[in-house]
Amino acid sequence: MTDSTLRLPAEWEPQAAVLIAWPHADTDWAERLEAVESTYVALAAAVTRFQPLIIVVAGETLRAHVMSQLQATNADLSRIRFVELPYDDTWLRDSGPITLRNNGNRFQLTDFRFTGWGGKFGAEQDDALIAGLVDAGVFGSAAHKRIDWALEGGGIESDGDGTILTTWRCLVQRHPEQSRDEMSTILRDSLNAQRVLWLDYGYLEGDDTDAHIDTLARFAPDHRIVYQACDDASDVHYDELKRMGEELATLRTADGKPYTLYPLPWAKPIVDEGRRLAASYANYLIVNGAVLVPAYGDAADDEAARIIGEAYPGRTVVQVPCRPLIWQNGSLHCITMQLPAGLV
């Protein structure tokens, strides 16, 4: 049972840093490493405008390479810290810590089992990443709690006030033997939440996470939900995302009020070697004072950034070129994990 004083903060609450792992030739990025590194460089420059960035690297050679790349940009190198650890891939939203905190300065690194998205990919080193970061002293005196139940950070959204949003499509794939009630109980107990809201609809072709919530719908302050819509009736996603929007309209806050919904525009299909890629604008990253928004070189990029800015008033909106990321079926939020203020 989780300490009852702890909770899962909302992403828009104050942060200590953002955590990433740099792509290298022994990850799945090898075939297009130069292109994807350009996105990581842009991300590093954007994050360090606002707060610190912790970069996991596979060794000293990669660390020197990353430094040489960042020195040629406007990244704030004084805000960057490197940690050397082995890793299989760079999707730290899913292999990084889900951090609970209380109103004091007490933290719990909740370390769920990472299975490579239901056994699709090897994940032994990624599953050990949180323990490695703890051993490296990154998180000070924070408690480390291992939970032997498969869950990825991209599979849940928190409003910071006791509500978790997730998708049935993802969690039933991870735990086909468990009922929705059983999974809701595990989520409530492990994240010290009061309730779990489930979406039955919503997916993106080319997404191998089995419909992670962070590609579909995101909590925003003041009872808002930003979600990926599709306005092209000829698109294969149209009916499914329309139904998801209808589901979201039926959800209620803890005090019984409807959420204010912000539908995002739909990028034109991006096809790579005959394969449709999952270009979601909902996969944005919140940092202190800003929202970093994926850009795909599509006419809808600017409208998506405008709408996300409306949902997070008072924050700077920064577009980050993410087209190279979706080749590997994820985007900006998927490669990052925010760390709550005071943790590092």
TrEMBL record:
Q: Does the keyword Hydrolase apply?
A: yes
Q: Which InterPro entries match?
A: Peptidyl-Arg-deiminase_porph (IPR007466)
Which GO molecular function annotation, any one, does this entry have?
protein-arginine deiminase activity
What domain of life does the native source organism fall in?
A: Bacteria
Gene Ontology BP annotations? putrescine biosynthetic process
Q: Does the keyword DNA repair apply?
A: no
Which keywords does this chain's UniProt record carry?
Hydrolase
Entry protein name: Agmatine deiminase family protein
Q: What is the lineage of its organism?
A: Bacteria, Pseudomonadati, Pseudomonadota, Gammaproteobacteria, Lysobacterales
